[in-house]
């Protein structure tokens, strides 16, 4: 019996600046995302940060789903705010590419899974804003920046609970109303875009998950503020996020999920 084609998932990259006399400017991304998606049945497609909307559109049209990974801070210019000293390293090429892909996918109802920075980017792409630094800007903030350090934090540390909103796509996928998560971010969603709804919250009220406010029952748009790829091997609920995403992309590939007429390639 012939095996059904596996869905192709676009995984965006991040810029590694030139190292003089060693490396030219490169595009990179963690192998962990790729291996976790592959384990759930995806064929990963690494997406370059091209300043070429026509070529990016050609790549996008061959994808069954979009995965937006974690990474450096999002430049506040992406949501029309002035950068403060609290904002860390940014990657404008990545912001531009991911916003374009997210806009196309939201319009076309193509499955999206976004983690950490990716969840923030998803909101920014459709009109949201961010805290440039949660610790100094969000009232009553708990610690969210458990970045791995030698002898201290690891990427698998479960550091705070998250409350899942009932009757949301996230609650249906995870099958629970609370989870313990790892946390490696200092930016966060401030004003949520109107086309998204919050589906999870940290104890301090910070938005920890988003999904489409307009999605039909068979659409898949999910963003979570933690890093489920680092927990997927030890926490079955986190593996469910990837399995559900890949199944949604596979269904689209089979033609059993709705499509919309593709939009034309757009520039900046």
Which short descriptors sum up this protein?
268 residues, alpha/beta, Rossmann fold, nine-stranded mixed β-sheet, two-stranded antiparallel sheet, 7 helices, 21% strand
Topology readout:
Layout: E1 8-12, E2 14-16, E3 26-28, H1 31-39, E4 43-47, H2 53-61, E5 65-68, H3 92-108, E6 112-115, H4 117-125, E7 129-131, H5 134-137, E8 160-164, H6 169-174, E9 178-181, E10 188-191, E11 196-201, E12 207-212, E13 221-224, H7 236-254
Parallel strand pairs: 1-4, 1-5, 5-6, 6-13
Antiparallel strand pairs: 2-3, 7-10, 8-9, 8-11, 11-12, 12-13
Helix pairs in contact: 2-3, 3-4
What does this structure look like?
- With 268 residues, this protein is of the alpha/beta class.
- It has a single domain, classed as Rossmann fold, CATH 3.40.50.880.
- Helices cover 27% and strands 21% of the residues.
- It has helices spanning 31-39, 53-61, 92-108, 117-125, 134-137, 169-174, 236-254, and strands spanning 8-12, 14-16, 26-28, 43-47, 65-68, 112-115, 129-131, 160-164, 178-181, 188-191, 196-201, 207-212, 221-224.
- It starts with 7 loop residues before the first strand and ends in a 14-residue tail after the last helix.
């Amino acid at each position: 019996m012939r095996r059904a084609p596996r869905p192709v998932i676009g995984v965006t990259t991040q810029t590694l600046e030139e190292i003089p006399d060693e490396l030219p400017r490169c595009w990179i991304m963690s192998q962990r995302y790729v291996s976790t998606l592959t384990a759930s049945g995806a064929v990963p497609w690494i997406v370059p940060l091209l300043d070429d909307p026509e070529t990016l559109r050609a790549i996008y049209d061959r994808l069954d789903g979009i995965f937006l990974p974690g990474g450096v801070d999002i430049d506040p210019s992406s949501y029309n705010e002035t950068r403060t000293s609290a904002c860390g390293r940014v990657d404008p090429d990545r912001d531009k590419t991911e916003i374009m892909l997210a806009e196309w996918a939201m319009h076309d109802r193509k499955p999206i899974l976004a983690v950490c920075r990716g969840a923030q980017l998803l909101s920014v792409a459709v009109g949201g804003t961010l805290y440039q630094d949660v610790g100094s800007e969000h009232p009553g903030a708990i610690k969210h920046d458990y970045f791995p350090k030698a002898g201290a934090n690891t990427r698998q540390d479960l550091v705070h609970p998250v409350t899942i909103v009932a009757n949301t796509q996230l609650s249906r996928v995870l099958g629970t109303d609370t989870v313990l998560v790892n946390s490696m971010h200092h930016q966060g969603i401030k004003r949520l875009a109107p086309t998204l709804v919050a589906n999870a919250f940290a104890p301090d009220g910070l938005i920890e998950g988003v999904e489409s406010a307009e999605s039909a029952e068979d659409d898949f748009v999910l963003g979570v503020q933690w890093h489920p790829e680092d927990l997927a091997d030890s926490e079955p609920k986190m593996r469910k996020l990837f399995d559900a995403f890949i199944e949604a992309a596979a269904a689209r590939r089979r033609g059993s999920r709705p499509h919309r007429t593709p939009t034309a390639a757009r520039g900046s």
